[in-house]
Amino acid sequence: MSSASDEARSAELRQKAERIRADLQRLIRELEKVIVGHHEVIEGILICLLCSGHVLLEGVPGLGKTLLVKSLGRVLNLRFSRIQFTPDLMPADIIGTNVVMEDESGRKHFEFQRGPIFAQIILADEINRATPKTQSALLEAMQEQSVTVAGIAHHLEAPFIVLATQNPIEMEGTYPLPEAQLDRFFLKLNVTYPSIQQLEDIVDRTTQHDPTTLQNILDAARVGEMKEFVRTIPVAAHVKNYAARLVLATHPDSSYATDLAKRYVLYGSSPRGAQSLVLGGKMKALLEGRYNVSFEDLRTIAIPSLRHRLILNFEGAAAGIEQGSIVSEILEKTPEVVRGS
Hints:
Layout: H1 2-31, H2 39-50, E1 55-58, H3 65-76, E2 80-84, H4 91-95, E3 96-102, E4 108-114, E5 121-125, H5 132-135, H6 137-144, E6 146-149, E7 152-155, E8 161-166, H7 179-182, E9 187-190, H8 196-207, H9 220-232, H10 237-248, H11 259-264, E10 265-267, H12 271-287, H13 295-306, E11 311-312, H14 314-318, H15 323-333
Parallel strand pairs: 1-8, 1-9, 2-5, 5-8
Antiparallel strand pairs: 3-4, 6-7, 10-11
Helix pairs in contact: 10-12, 10-13, 12-13, 13-15
């Protein structure tokens, strides 16, 4: 009886995984009606959404980052808010503030007026153009899904995801994100320039009459169900061990560190990197309709999970070393299974 029950339970979980995969594929197809290319970026954003993470999008202007985030809000029927970060933006402009109100009897009282952070999909556009004080206004919201004003906590509606953009080439007048804030982004995704075929497609869509309208595919309740299911996907002990060794290999003083990490890294990834690897691996498996995490799932998600969590030393920064190349070497030189383990 126990064996039959286990088999029935396993079959039910696989069916749930396949239904979620089908919903995700429908969602991706709907977004690709208006978004040309960027398939990996779309997948990465959905991974973050279902893992309760946040996304840092890096790319030059005009590549469709804003359109992608807005479109995501439409197909999920979630409230969208765009915050344009500028040097004069203040924390209260994001969170909100208490204002003096007067009731019918003439008595005055404070009333909290919510800021644009009180949405479900937040586009933090050009986040590195605001001061560190203003950037830090997002920290509590990103970590706790709440904001505190005058000692009172105000909870944010789930699902809640911050998608921050930054321009990698126009650095004058910008403020690099603090390491503590970078670490709170689940993935860092590079938005690359389109190919010639994609560019032609973009021109066709934007220079002709295009009646394409996006359909609502999922809602907040379904997203919540999918998020809960992701947590149930099992991870084998040897796969977790591989994830742990990948993270430790980013630390220059670790016995697992590779040559580039020892030479150019000052501080390696925090434990959040391991969490991102494992949860991201679960989502990669789910996107393929599987109910188990493979080594390849971790390898696929490793670079966007870890590169923004590596802090280079002076030599690495001066030489312009890319953190992604360090993670690539770690993937190349770290064995999937350690003999005797």
